[in-house]
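Page header: ASSEMBLY MODEL / two components / 340 residues total.
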Amino acid sequence: MAAYGSNGVLRGEARFTEEQEGLVIKSWNIMKDDSANIGHRFFLKIFEVAPSARELFSFLRNSDVPLEKNPRLKAHAMSVFVMTCEAAAQLRNTGKVTVGDTTLKRLGATHFKKGVSDAHFEVAKYALLETIKYGVPASMWSPAMKNAWGEAYDHLVAAIKQEMRPAALL
Amino acid sequence: MAAYGSNGVLRGEARFTEEQEGLVIKSWNIMKDDSANIGHRFFLKIFEVAPSARELFSFLRNSDVPLEKNPRLKAHAMSVFVMTCEAAAQLRNTGKVTVGDTTLKRLGATHFKKGVSDAHFEVAKYALLETIKYGVPASMWSPAMKNAWGEAYDHLVAAIKQEMRPAALL
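Prediction written out in full:
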């Protein structure tokens, strides 16, 4: 059961189809060859919409390294894309996000500690979808592709949110 | 002095030029003939980026009225556009936002009570700029126009934020 019920959303099994999984995988296969660029555009969009989100990344504060060259920001962007892809495959296979418990607890604790809000997760979703829209050939982009990525992302975030609590309580 | 210093931003006089004021006024004069549509698109963009922002509007929760027909949402959108225009004129004339004290205290208290966050103000700014971008003829839109609206909005929001405290403390 994908019952991320603590915040009242995403209860029950998700119906994620093979076609939806295919849309996510197909587009990621195209984007991943250009992943550095894609990751950079993802964060540029996040910071365009919500400049204050920079404050969430302590390593950006006193850094002279340009955004597109920051290895930690690049790694974060890749995690978002790759984990969303994996979430799509898991949802199709099992109806739920099956990120390892340790990983999920770590992600939950980190996002809690940094004070990541619902609005931040939403802005990141918007940035993710905008980045994909302009990262794949125009003929490939479709509302169905947008929804497939959006659903996989929502389930991944719901799983992370459920683990958002102080690390001391783990 | 436009010293909205409590949160460390926008200290000192703003240098807002006649040209910047002109860019704001000129574009608003075009958009205002279609203000219902403009206001609708502004909120659609806010809710696209941050769906949870709907929760900030108690009158949307149990309403069957479609968004584009909701008179209170329309009024809110118009306030944002008109007050940003007025802020542009005030900044050019006096170097600061001179919204009446009573209005500012009321706006501060309301936004405080609703729990409007920095991220929400940022999403609204992004939505405002996107709405203007697609609300004026493509040949009129420019980085300078974007900056003029953005600066006027930032100063208006800084003035509101300075008054964000519980109404009981007024």
